[in-house]
Amino acid sequence: MIDKLISKDKNIYELPQEGKMRVPGRIYSSESLLSHPGMDSAVQQVANVAQLPGIVNASMAMPDIHWGYGFPIGGVAAFRSNSTKGKTGVISPGGVGFDINCGVRLLRTDLVESDIRGKQKEIIDELYKEVPAGLGSKGKIRLSDRELESVLSIGSKWAEEKGYLWKSDLEVLEENGCIDTALPEHVSDYARKRGSKQVGSLGSGNHFLEVQKVDEVFDEAAAKAFGLFEGQAVVMMHTG
């Protein structure tokens, strides 16, 4: 599929509409990213999404594109609601994904680059030792059935009570880390058993944990509000 891509602009490629595709594909990526192993399968998934009923404009993929479950990871698609025969929209588990609360978060520190320069290996070794990661990884936090029920019911408040975060952290979390309308009783026993072992793990796929530096500040007011400054050492993680 890669050989069918047409460069439309810098870092914008189009997959022409053909066969059962209802719209063309559009991929936002550099040429070097497209050369990564497995990318051909991800582009095929862009074409597969383009065949779905109701899709409009294009089957798109962002720069983090790679092979996923149905949709490619990084896939984006819009659908007309009238394609659902009077219902109010489209929900695609293959498009949304099923990592609970999957997303990216930045943790600020009081350290600067010079504090960690020369200590990268020690930091990396410690992170690998303390943070379970990879396919099938299990977290170090062991939960009883009652504790798991608490996690499902009050969310991040449980982590605050256990000392895993500060109360001030809750103030900058969406919904303060707990959605009032959550219905934990609808979570199956199988899902509970599987999920309880993963609490505290990083996961696999495109999940990551990186120690980074604030290289440049583009918005001084926003940076000040978030407590960020040039040269600051921060930790970015993608998990769920």
From TrEMBL:
EC class, as a word, reads ligase
Ligase as a keyword?
Answer: yes
Tell me which cofactor or cofactors this protein depends on. Answer: Mn(2+)
Which keywords accompany this UniProt record? GTP-binding, Ligase, Manganese, Metal-binding, Nucleotide-binding
List the Gene3D superfamilies hit by this protein, alphabetically: tRNA-splicing ligase RtcB
Give a GO molecular function annotation for the protein: RNA ligase (GTP) activity
Q: Name one GO biological process term.
A: RNA processing
Q: What is its EC number?
A: 6.5.1.8
| This protein's name | 3'-phosphate/5'-hydroxy nucleic acid ligase
